[in-house]
Amino acid sequence: MTDGVIDVEFEQPACATQHAWARVPVEPSVTERAALKDEIRALLRARNAVMVSHYYVHPDLQDLAEETGGLVSDSLEMARFGRDHAAQTLVVSGVRFMGETAKILSPEKTILMPDLDANCSLDLGCPIDAFSAFCDQHPERTVVVYANTSAAVKARADWLVTSSCALDVVNALKDKGHRLIWGPDKHLGAYIQRETGADMLMWQGSCIVHDEFKAAELAALKAERPEAKVLVHPESPADVVALADAVGSTSAILNAARSMAADTFIVATDKGMMHKLRTLNPGKTFIEAPTAGNSATCKSCAHCPWMAMNGLAGVARVLREGSNAIDVPASLIDRARLPIERMLNFTAALKGGHDAGALVPHIGAA
Ligand code: 13P
Ligand code: SF4
């Protein structure tokens, strides 16, 4: 280990994204699409179920969620909505950690996902045994993990964060004297460290999608389109973040596009985001930030292969069969809920204008 950074890079198994791409559903025809949507609407009513979709999934799954009283949002609000909604069955269109978070928060509910193999490179790159050993080497440090992790890693953490609240949570922890272990996203961690000055030991995971945005190509595009503002998700490398006019979670990107006085935006996040950006801002132009394109190792070209595994046919099937229910071992649920609830309480206090910092104990306090 060198200063504050562990050297171990967990290589993605070469087949991981190929496997995911191979499972991406074929686009249904116009007639099939309409029939599937009708079937899903009816099944949601019959099962008293609600859809919760992430901004990166297929536009049909975003629109259908909203149209049927569900939600499309970032990962923080997906967790809150799933916990607070009265429906006993949630259909989560996103990646596995989102379904697991919903289950941990509401073990009594049935959480269905179109494809249980929809994973995330951050989750895959942070195996519990290695992460736990890392934490064990620094027992004096507070463990802060990103939502994009397994239930077991959450159960090893003191605090959970998403990109929409990481700055606030880490600032509050720093103010109370905490030194941190941070995992698994090295880019988000480095961004938070630069912004807060917190003492953070970093795990070296990354998102295969955001890792592919390229600063030199982005700078060239910016020069070609000087009128454009650049919106960047903080899972992107530091040199890409440095070119941003606004940095933040998927919701923060959406808010920036609506509120900034510009008509053109270059967007460095998964291209699934374009659907909401364009529908909510019909007069504005959104351009995808450049990636390594065909030379990219993950061949993602700014789209998450695991998010792409979600489709209408999968949603209809799991609702019809009650299949693909997320299961989290009972032995993990109570411990994993602790850091998630801390995050939800902290962000609710912030939103309500209360002193969220009061929810963070001083280091050494029980
Ligand atoms: P958000 O929390 O910003 O929605 O991000 C989740 C994610 O997986 C981004 O890649
Ligand atoms: Fe994980 Fe990246 Fe996909 Fe988000 S976009 S789910 S961080 S691999």
Task: Pick out its properties.
single chain; 366 residues; 43% helix; alpha/beta; four-stranded parallel beta sheet; globular; 16 helices; binds 1,3-dihydroxyacetonephosphate; binds iron/sulfur cluster
Spatially, the strands of the biggest sheet line up as: 2-1-3-4
| Unreliable residue stretches | 1-5, 7-14
Distinct small molecules: 1,3-dihydroxyacetonephosphate, iron/sulfur cluster
Taken as a percent bin, the fraction of beta residues is: 5-15%
> What is the count of helical runs?
16
Outline the biggest β-sheet: 4 strands, parallel
Strand segment tally:
12
Global morphology = globular
Topology as a string of helices (H) and strands (E): HHEHEHEHEHHEHEHEHEHEHEHEHEHH
- Assembly type of the chains comes to single chain
What does this structure look like?
- The protein is of the alpha/beta class and 366 residues long.
- 43% of the residues lie in helices and 13% in strands.
- The chain has 16 helices and twelve strands.
- The chain has helices at 15-22, 30-47, 59-67, 75-84, 96-105, 121-124, 128-136, 151-155, 166-175, 186-196, 215-224, 238-241, 250-259, 274-280, 312-321, 330-351; strands at residues 49-54, 71-73, 89-93, 110-112, 142-146, 159-161, 180-183, 200-202, 229-232, 246-247, 264-268, 285-288.
- It has a four-stranded parallel beta sheet, sandwiched between helices.
- It is globular and about 60 Å long.
- The model is unreliable at 1-5 and 7-14 (pLDDT under 50).
- Iron/sulfur cluster binds next to helix 6.
